[in-house]
Automatic annotation (TrEMBL):
One of its GO terms (biological process) is response to antibiotic. It comes from Lacisediminihabitans changchengi. Residues 23-269 form the ABC transmembrane type-2 domain. InterPro entries: ABC-2_transporter, ABC2_TM, ABC2_TM_bact-type, ABC_2_transport. This is Transport permease protein. Its main location: membrane. The keyword Transport applies. Belongs to the ABC-2 integral membrane protein family. It is found in: Cell membrane; Membrane. It comes from the Bacteria. One of its GO terms (molecular function) is ABC-type transporter activity. Keywords: Antibiotic resistance, Cell membrane, Membrane, Transmembrane, Transmembrane helix, Transport. The chain crosses the membrane at residues 25-47, 59-84, 105-130, 150-167, 179-198, 241-263.
C-alpha cells in the first residue's frame, strides 16, 4: 500500500513535469488535435466522406478523422512519451539517482502509467470537445459504442505504455531518443489508417500494418465513431472487434516480456 501511495504521489509529480515541457506537450498532447484541425479544414471543400452514388449522405472530414486521431494520441501518449522520457532519464542519470533512494520500482512505474493515463484522457476529452463544438461532429449516443470505446482505450493505452517502456532501451543516449522514436511512431501512423484511408493503401501494406497495434486501435475507434456503412471498407468488410482485442492483448503480453528484460533499475534488490 505504501508503494501504491508513493506511486500515486509520483504520478502527480510526473504530470506536472509533463505539462512544463513545451516540446513534449506539443508533439504528444496537442499534436493529434492540431492534425485534426488541419485535415478538417484542408478537406472541408472536398465534400463528405462515404457519400452515396447520388451524392447524399456521408460524413465530414472532421468526423472521419476523429477515430484515427484518438488512436494516434493513445500511441503518442504511451509509446512516444514513455520511450523518450525513460531514455532521457537513463541518459541524464535520473534513474541512477532514483535507484539510490527508497523509491520502489513499482512506485516508479505507477507514476509513469498514472501520468500517461491522466494526460491521454485529457487529450481525448479536449479533442472530442473541439470536434463537437468547433467542427460540428456528432458523437455516438449508443451506450454500447461507448462501452467499446472504454475497453479499446484501456487495452490500447496499457499496451502502448508497456511498449514505450520496452522501446526506451533502443536509443543509445537520451539526446538521440527523439530522433530514434519519433520516426517509428510517424511511420506507423501513415500505414495504420490515421492520416490516409486504410482501404486505399496497397494490400501488402495493409497486411504489414495489421501486424502492429495502432491499426487495430484505429479500427476499434472507427467502430465507435463512424457509421455502420463504413464497415464495408474495412479488411474483410467487418469491424473485427474480436481481432482488435486479440492483437492488442498479444502486444500487451509481448511488451510486458520485452520491458521485463530490457528495463534496468540500477539497484539490485529491485
Amino acid at each position: 500500500m505504501n508503494a501504491i501511495a508513493l506511486g500515486l504521489d509520483r504520478a502527480r509529480y510526473e504530470t506536472k513535469i509533463y505539462f512544463r515541457q513545451g516540446d513534449t506537450v506539443f508533439f504528444t498532447f496537442l499534436f493529434p488535435i492540431v492534425m485534426l484541425s488541419i485535415f478538417s479544414v484542408a478537406f472541408s471543400a472536398a465534400g463528405n466522406f462515404g457519400t452515396n452514388p447520388d451524392g447524399s449522405g456521408g460524413i465530414t472530414a472532421a468526423a472521419f478523422y476523429v477515430p484515427g486521431m484518438i488512436a494516434a494520441g493513445i500511441l503518442l501518449s504511451g509509446v512516444q512519451n514513455l520511450a523518450v522520457d525513460i531514455a532521457v532519464e537513463r541518459g541524464d542519470g535520473t534513474l541512477k539517482r532514483l535507484a539510490g533512494t527508497p523509491l520502489p520500482v513499482l512506485s516508479y512505474f505507477i507514476g509513469k502509467f498514472g501520468q500517461v493515463l491522466i494526460t491521454s484522457l485529457a487529450q481525448i476529452a479536449l479533442l472530442l470537445l473541439i470536434a463537437r463544438f468547433a467542427f460540428g461532429v456528432q458523437l455516438p449516443t449508443d451506450a454500447g459504442r461507448w462501452g467499446t470505446f472504454v475497453w479499446v482505450y484501456l487495452l490500447g493505452i496499457t499496451t502502448s505504455a508497456v511498449l514505450g517502456i520496452a522501446l526506451s532501451r533502443i536509443p543509445r543516449s537520451g539526446k538521440s531518443a527523439t530522433a530514434v522514436i519519433i520516426p517509428i511512431v510517424l511511420v506507423l501512423q501513415f500505414i495504420s489508417g490515421v492520416y490516409l484511408q486504410f482501404s486505399q493503401l496497397p494490400v501488402w501494406l495493409q497486411n504489414v500494418a495489421s501486424v502492429f497495434p495502432l491499426k487495430w486501435m484505429a479500427q476499434g475507434m472507427r467502430y465507435v465513431f463512424l457509421p455502420d456503412s463504413f464497415q464495408q471498407v474495412e479488411q474483410g468488410n467487418e469491424w473485427n472487434l474480436g481481432w482488435v482485442a486479440i492483437v492488442l492483448a498479444v502486444w500487451l503480453v509481448g511488451g510486458l516480456i520485452a520491458a521485463r528484460f530490457t528495463f534496468r533499475w540500477i539497484r539490485k534488490d529491485s
